[in-house]
Amino acid sequence: MHRERIIALISAIRDKANRFLLKRLDSHSIKDIAPAHGGIFVHLFRNSKLTMGEIVRLIDREKSTVTTLVDKLVRLGYLEREKDVADNRVTKVRLTKKGKKLEADFGDISKQLLDRAYAGFTEKEKDAIIRLLTRVNNNF
Q1: pTM
Q2: Which helix (H) or strand (E) holds 21?
Q3: d(Cα 51, Cα 55) in Å, to the nearest integer?
Q4: In which order are the strands placed within the sheet that holds 91-95?
């Protein structure tokens, strides 16, 4: 084993997963969304509204990155922003009708991605991969 290859290997997996996602998005006629937007959609499918801070925490990205991603999705009509009625300083984000229509497609694409990633692995091995990669992530 070449232990020094860990970051290169993680990067290669990310690149391959992104190419896989782009092909699947295209097969569902979704051409204006990038894989980087996926985490935002997934969490908004689970929650009706989220603050920008909550999205930052949930997808583990920098605030400026999340702002850029959300801005694009707002421009494309998938998301809308609204001020929190209790605290005008807080902005919440929610899916539009157009954004909600993607839930089934995203579910299908996510299943295909996970099936590909975990092909040939036992449940115990899947748990071990997640546990170990979480530790690597937490080291940063």
Answers
A1: 0.87
A2: helix 6-27
A3: 6
A4: 50-51, 91-95, 79-83
